[in-house]
Specification:
Blueprint: H1 2-27, H2 33-64, E1 78-84, H3 88-97, H4 99-102, E2 105-111, E3 116-121, E4 130-140, E5 143-152, H5 163-176
Antiparallel strand pairs: 1-5, 2-3, 3-4, 4-5
Helix pairs in contact: 1-2
Length: 178
Amino acid sequence: MKKIITQNLKVGLFVFSVQFFVGLIFLFRNFNLETVIWTALLSCITTLVFIIVIALVQAFYMKSYKVSLKDFDVNPTQSATFSVDKTLEEVLAIIENEIPEKINSYKFKYDKEQNIYKAKTSATIRSWGEIVIIKLTKIDNYKIQLSVLSKSILKTTLIDYGKSSLNIQKIKLAFEKI
């Protein structure tokens, strides 16, 4: 919970600093000092209320869905490497036919130059979407190693409520069920 509060304070500090610099611009214009001070106070109060509300919503979400911070890192970039006992053709069939639907991907393609699959997921209530990258490494005829990376589309995302971890779990489950 401490990590979530820290992330919210960083967002709040950013919002406050933007509001502070806007207030400074008003100060050097032809506004009177009292108006600028009241505007700055209103900005501070708005920022503080924003931080508290977001922290409460996040805490409520974590408690109601029983999401533990020990299960995933708060960082919106997650990666995992695992191997499956299947042929390359079976792995490719699962990746191309099942994975896009499981992770709610609207854009899924194979990059021949880098030998990776890239997917973009749709925005949800948890995040603005993720980029999922799957790299295949053939160990032998019946063993393939998969390296999966799931990261937020927006670089400014501080927390994704475990959405990147969920993408990786869904990919692992796709290979375990068959």
